[in-house]
Amino acid sequence: MSYITSKLIGYLRLMRPANIITAIADILAGVAISGFLTEVYIDSLDILPIACLCLATMGLYGGGVVFNDVMDADLDKEERPERPIPSGVISRTQAIVLGGYLLVVGILAAFTVGRISGWLAVGITITALVYDKWGKHHAFLGPFNMGLCRGLNLLLGISIVVPALMDYWWMAFIPIIYIAAVTNISRDEVHGGSVKRLRITAVCYAGVYITMGVLAFLQHHIWIALPFIVLFAFMINRPLLRAMKDPSGPNIGKAVKGGIIALIAMNAAWAAAFASLPYALLVLLLLPISILISRMFAVT
């Protein structure tokens, strides 16, 4: 493998490309929730602001996870020496430059859509860096902090229609709870964990997909959204139940990976509930892409 190829792969591993696909799905779901795709906006529909928000989340998520590896470099020398920084493929300075560049691109791309979108991007950046440096070390605040990143990302998509934020700001709590539940068990993916922690996550999961069903019903799109909700529930519960039977590190790692990738199915359900079946299927097309990339690059 050449030096340039090795570096490129190292940078991609730092950015978690499979996870970035899930962040794009957040934006597309937020766009659906905002009403941007309804007849009210259809005459002036322009894919440019959607593309800019997708670029923004790519930069924000990519930069956030790069700085996570920068902060964890010393710990990874012991627990995950194969990662790009501890293995020496990418230096800490190079990672800092990459992460900083990605965050700046993400913020600037969001500001091209509007001031509210830009400030949400700033909020996501701050929240991600707080998690990277301090948040993940706290048992309660860590999961909430990580969930807040996802909740703000959904709002970033909704911000394409600013008035919609006043109506749907509270929906950020759904990904906050969900990702907090995923993060709650991610702490045990190296050394294994307890069944009690997994059961708490299972209860949170149930609350999330039941809430999704209720909201889809209220939107009068329950039968369109239901297959996506069922797929979401299957994707998160299958590996979780296996981990509950055997809470070993590898099984918990698979449950965490499944929980992250399943975000695309969750976002497809939102698209079905608030927009249309074709748009939901378009979002769902990101799922096989993310799964394929996750086989080449680690998700956690």
TrEMBL record:
CDD domains, alphabetized: PT_UbiA_1 (cd13964)
Xref: NCBIfam families: prenyl_rel_EboC
Top-level taxon: Bacteria
InterPro entries hit by this protein: Prenyltransferase_related, UbiA_prenyltransferase, UbiA_sf
Membrane protein topology class: Multi-pass membrane protein
A Pfam family hit: UbiA
Sequence intervals crossing the membrane: 20-41, 47-68, 89-110, 168-186, 198-218, 224-243, 255-273, 279-298
Subcellular compartments: Membrane
Keywords: Cell membrane, Membrane, Transmembrane, Transmembrane helix
Protein name: UbiA-like protein EboC
